[in-house]
Prior knowledge:
Elements: E1 3-9, H1 30-35, H2 43-48, E2 69-73, H3 82-89, H4 107-117, E3 121-126, H5 129-143, E4 146-150, E5 155-161, H6 167-180, E6 189-196, E7 203-204, E8 209-212, H7 220-226, E9 230-234, H8 237-240, E10 248-250, H9 255-266, E11 272-278, H10 280-286, H11 291-309, E12 316-321, E13 341-346, E14 354-358, H12 363-371
Parallel strand pairs: 1-11, 1-12, 2-14, 3-4, 5-6, 9-10, 9-11
Antiparallel strand pairs: 2-13, 4-5, 6-7, 6-8, 12-13
Helix pairs in contact: 4-6, 9-11, 10-11
Amino acid sequence: MKRIFLFVLDSFGIGQMPDAEKFGDVNVNTLAACAASKECRILNMIKAGLGCIDGVTCLPAPEGVPGGAYARLTEASMGKDTTIGHWELAGVISKKPLPTYPNGFPEEVLKPFEQATGRGVLANIPISGTEVIAKYGDEHVRTGKLIVYTSADSVFQIAAHEDVVPLEELYRYCRIARQQLQGKHGVGRVIARPFVGTSGAYTRTANRHDFSLEPPAETMLDAIQAAGLDCIAVGKIYDIFAGRGITEKVYTKSNANGLEYAMEYAKRDFHGLCFINLVDFDMLYGHRRNVDGYAKALTEFDAWLPAFMEQMGEDDVVMITADHGCDPSYQATTDHTREYVPLLVMGQSIQPVNLGTRTSFSDVAATILEMLQVSTNISGSSFAQKLQ
């Protein structure tokens, strides 16, 4: 194959995994929650085989033969966050979970950070990003102290008003935290969360930036770059992999913006992988438990898909998957949910076949590398031969 487009619909799970309860999740199913919404119209993905995937009972099967190959992917890593999910899609299985801080960060983490930045810290609790700026925004503006918070994910998040802490200064503080948070405190991501506005009306901006832990082993992206092929990152892919293995990158401000860039790359001649993350599903709808919003976003992606497929040549492949779940109907928490994720594989040369339930997300990496004729020893079992 010449060009492979890998779309990650961030948090688009399709039903709980057998060990979901160990992760605090019971009866979670992102797809089923969205399918029940009046805003959900995803006929193109249904035609591709989404309703035929193992365990999916909330969607009909397509009329006639599905338009692509399809599978249910099992997460082999011990986590349900963005970093671990994307790493596994790229061939790295994380047997140990990244550290989380349900009671906030200890003094041994915060004190060196405060000394290095010269600023105090507010909050230091697990809390939603919109809630934390509403609660601590005024004190931050008055004192200049940084709002530091976390979630159920392995993240160290720093919120600051753009008029109080200029963006480049906030990013510098994040780099300091990233350098400090290694080893046992090696969180998956340090995240800059800038906001604007006035008291009672603070809003986050699109200038978020993630500073990720480097993957602990070779990834699909490293192998593609080493082979001299293109590895294009759209959205937060560059940040998730700490820039490793990327030959070209572009950041996005929304799903719509990400799809615009994907279409631009579809009209370009390149040889390799275009890796696209669409974060709005997770950030705007999953965590905020907005079922109709999530369903509408799926509908918008689905409606966009046919025009994109028209740009594909006979040597091109499109894969659609996810990195974890975030059931917008689940009320026990507002965190990610431990779910299987879907895989749809489409292209002029792709045979419609049920690839079953795969034992790891890393099968995606192994398959992409075989399609691109790139040799590597990363984890995963390729299903490329079954697509012919």
